[in-house]
Design brief:
Blueprint lengths: L4 E3 L5 E3 L3 E2 L6 H13 L4 E3 L7 H11 L7 E6 L6 H15 L6 E4 L7 H13 L6 E4 L3 H10 L6 E5 L7 H9 L3 E5 L11 H10 L3 H11 L3 E3 L5 H8 L8 H7 L17
Parallel strand pairs: 3-4, 4-5, 5-6, 6-7, 7-8, 8-9, 9-10
Antiparallel strand pairs: 1-2
């Protein structure tokens, strides 16, 4: 299995499909899940300080014994740590828990109004020091990006948002594409809430795939880096078994009409 890659605006190469490890109450399963994912060919792991499992990710990396350069590691600064100096301290703690000298991507987890500009300045410092190979944001829509780009010295390499046909934001995708910011989508499987949607079931049957596989493939075909979460071995393998079919343009257009604002996380527009 060869996973496609994207090249970020600073030249860093990032796998387009990876594993999200947001797993509250399942942290004991995270190390095993990451090991299974790496075994299945995954080379992108997305964690965050707030997930409380950076140490488990580190243990899985050690167990896998893969060259450091072969695995792309993302982590994030949490809201309560935002601010210029506190973000740098939080980054140091994340590096320590991950057992790494650098991360491949460091992100602002949410656009906290009072601190987000100073937090971005801290990320720029971390990037200039070579301790993060790329920096970016999460849960930023147009207004947040407009504000940031007015003052940023470095354009974010990535914007990670909730992304599924049911939370489809083509205007955010177009905004990021126009500015060479790579969109990354979390919760592509909508935590299973839509797996029995009759429209999705019918389409998946046409391709001989599961509804989860169809959702992952839809996201990839939008050009979005995609990070489905699972701690189950079979599901992890299934989520990566999406490169032997292509959704037709007609079916992509149909899935784009499924939007109903189903979310598993906050609406970023509440962070104005």
């Amino acid at each position: 299995m060869t996973i496609p890659q994207v090249t970020l605006n600073n030249g860093v190469v990032m796998p387009q499909l990876g594993l999200g490890v947001y797993a509250p109450r399942q942290n004991s399963d995270v190390q095993q899940a990451v090991e299974w994912a790496l075994e299945a060919g995954c080379r992108l792991i997305d964690t965050a300080a707030a997930y409380g499992n950076e140490r488990e990710v580190a243990a899985a990396l050690r167990a896998a014994r893969l060259p450091r350069k072969d695995v792309f590691i993302t982590t994030k600064v949490w809201n309560s740590d935002q601010g210029y100096e506190s973000t740098q301290r939080a980054f140091d703690r994340s590096l320590d828990r991950l057992g790494l000298d650098t991360v491949d991507l460091y992100l602002i987890h949410w656009p906290v109004k009072e601190h987000r500009l100073e937090t971005w300045r801290a990320l720029e410092t971390i990037y200039a020091d070579g301790r993060a190979r790329a920096i970016g944001v999460c849960n930023y829509y147009g207004p947040h990006l407009d504000e940031l780009l007015e003052q940023a010295q470095v354009t974010p390499a990535v914007n990670q948002i909730e992304w599924s046909p049911y939370c489809y934001k083509p205007e955010v995708l177009a905004y990021c594409q126009a500015r060479n910011i790579q969109l990354e989508g979390y919760a592509p499987l909508v935590r299973g809430l839509k797996k029995d949607d009759p429209r999705l079931v019918k389409l998946a049957g046409n391709y001989g795939k599961s509804t989860f596989q169809l959702l992952v493939r839809w996201s990839l075909q939008q050009g979005v880096v995609t990070i489905p979460k699972s701690v189950k071995r079979d599901r992890i393998r299934e989520n990566f078994d999406v490169f032997d079919f292509t959704i037709t343009d007609e079916d992509m257009a149909l899935m784009n009409t499924f939007y109903d604002n189903t979310r598993i996380a906050d609406d970023p527009m509440t962070y104005l």
